[in-house]
Amino acid sequence: MLKIVNLHARIGDTEILKGLTLELGAGKVHAIMGPNGSGKSTLASILAGRDEYEVTEGSITFEGVDLLELDATERAVAGIFLAFQYPVEIPGVSNINFLRTAINSIREQREEGPLSGKDFLAKVKACAQLVELDGKLRDRSVNEGFSGGEKKRNEIFQMAMLEPKLAILDETDSGLDIDALRIVSHGVNTMRDPNRSFLVITHYQRLLDHIVPDHVHVLAGGRIVHSGGKELALELEKKGYDWILDAQAEKA
Amino acid sequence: MSAKEDNPLLDEFTRKEYEFGFTTDIEADKVPPGLNEDVIRLISAKKEEPQWMLDWRLQAFEVWNTMEEPDWAHVNYTKPDYQAISYYSAPKSKVPLGSLDEVDPELRATMDKLGISTEEQKRLSGVAVDFVMDSVSVATSFKDKLAELGIIFCSMSEAIKEHPELVRKHLGTVVPVKDNFFSALNSAVFTDGSFCYIPKGSRCPMELSTYFRINEAGTGQFERTLLIAEEGSYVSYLEGCTAPQRDENQLHAAVVELIAKDDAEIKYSTVQNWYPGDAEGKGGVFNFVTKRGICETRAKISWTQVETGSAVTWKYPSCILKGDGSVGEFYSVAVTNNAQQADTGTKMVHLGANTHSTIISKGISAGNSQNSYRGLVQMGPRARNARNFSQCDSLLMTDTSGAHTFPYIESKHPTAQVEHEATTSKIGEDQIFYCLQRGLTEEQAIGLIVNGYAKEVLNKLPMEFAVEARKLLTISLEGSVG
What we know:
The complex is a heterodimer. Chain A is an alpha/beta fold.
């Protein structure tokens, strides 16, 4: 579904990704872990099409399409969703109006007719239930005055509404208490589907107790340096990253 | 868009004509450039005005001659040569265009985006067309309805002839001739405008818009509006339209006077979209407007404006809160793009006790434009327990645009309360990216963010007007983030 080959990218003069290679199959959950500053959030931003980053080498293909040729909007239309680490506030724009605009914009670009008001509201109701988002939050301005946990739940709510093919969760667990973590994970697990892949970026193994990944990758120094199954996360939790980094250094 | 379909009024006023396509072979109907007593006599004679009106104009001209054009506003422009302007030109003397293909394609694209039908576009652009609907008869039927209630709504010229006692009694009482340079000029040479009278206790059943005035005369350049709401009456008045209006006349100096008697309420909404000029501001309209209302006891005047047009705007719709318990409101969205300059705001003059005023101003600056809020809140010596709340927000779309706030507060009563809040923010790339990631186009993203920012003001507009105003904001700012 997603294939990243030898990706190099920089912001300004700083090279952040240095030959990252990664492949995600349909219906799989891949977790990316790694020390601070290893390039995890950069990877998420580049996949979503943020243009501050310059890709200098390598390729990204999504369902056979050259992703680097698409702008951010086109990637959303193609089915890529990013749950932001820091969801943005948009004052004066209700959550509902925002989502309706988004859904109908995507549908229009896919040459589908707009969702009827009735269908839209039914979907809102179902998705809001999934992440226990109450009516007030749905009607309030996008993320404005939301607590950290509410913002993250709102991201998952939007994901459920937009039904992406590839969902990238950028440190969705940061700033979540145990209850919010459970709610968010439940939302994600419910959304798991043979046709939907997840890229879960996290610092902590605890999220992966709830969202059990098929594969775990370690991103360090701008490259994937180690990959394994779900048990790798536990090992990292216990031993930290140093042993992998040391092994890398020895190889080099 | 159902609001539009449901509302023939809206449909109608969006068809208001704009002066486009003047050519030189209309000299016969045009007074030669220059301003002197003879020109004023000629204007008055052409309009068949009574002597008192002519005397009033001549006196105003005398006053104007002693005045200097003000330069305190935060705008920069070459002052017009007042002797090079023609002060009277008969309207309708335009040569119709053959087809829509002759219309400026950019203008057409804008009209397409505003959702204006081909038929309307033709009309707006001055293309010769057989009218399907007889606009005069439509307007007349509205007029009959209003007449039943004793409401007078007509052109100023007509009012001077038909209701001289009302005009004479009120004209210049809110904005005196000598108020400022432009009000004096307007008083001397005004060509036409609207007159509206709501009798005691009447509630005007429809939004009055300038379009319905059966008005053969062009009113663009020196428009004069007088609106009188008698005791306990109510009226909502709409001025302008969202379709871009081009005008050969570079200088616009309008005067609007509102009079709200005891317990009356006037809601005055404006959408101003005069031609802003090219990207350098060349050829745009100078819009120097004096708007003011006076509130008697417990009366209320509410100004709402969406300003997107003109090269230079100088405009301060104000309220004199004379009566005890009277209320003044000012809600404004001012957008400047490219080389536009706007210096706009309000004056709330609290004379009576327990008077309240609210000011919500939202400035949006894009391109290389300059956008200033200038406001005065004055609490007079009798203004016991008077209150004001002001909120002035500025949104910057680019690093090269400017936003400025000039609040003036004067309080002469110890119990008066004045609150002022101001913010300046830059439209976030984060906000835009967030929207794009959810599948919105950049245009939609900017539209959504800007409309969210201006929501408090847009919500004050009559519903059908608000729908168009939202689109207009988006269009005015297209491609302007940087």
